[in-house]
Write a structure and sequence with these properties.
This protein is mainly alpha-helical and about 80 residues long. The chain is built from 3 helices and 2 strands, in the order ααββα. The chain has a two-stranded antiparallel ribbon with strand order 1-2. Strand 1 and strand 2 form a beta hairpin. The model has no long low-confidence stretch (mean pLDDT about 90). This is Sodium symporter small subunit domain-containing protein. Keywords: Membrane, Transmembrane, Transmembrane helix. Pfam families: DUF4212 (PF13937).
Amino acid sequence: MNSNSYWHENLRLIGTCLIVWFTCSYGFGVLLVDELNRIQFAGFKLGFWFAQQGSIYVFLVLIFFYAHRMAKIDKKHDVDEE
């Protein structure tokens, strides 16, 4: 097992997840809220929805995505639990 390769893939995955999380929570919920509030989603302004609920849903999806991808990375580098 090449531990440098394993940690490089792990950190790249974490970085990608953090970028998506930051974009959805801070970018859509704070920085772009005025522009997104012009769009209606489920009866709410989209900026408000991202600030209150959307970023939470994205975070939950990221948790499952991270777990799924880490299982593949673990198996690839033969450090899985199976």
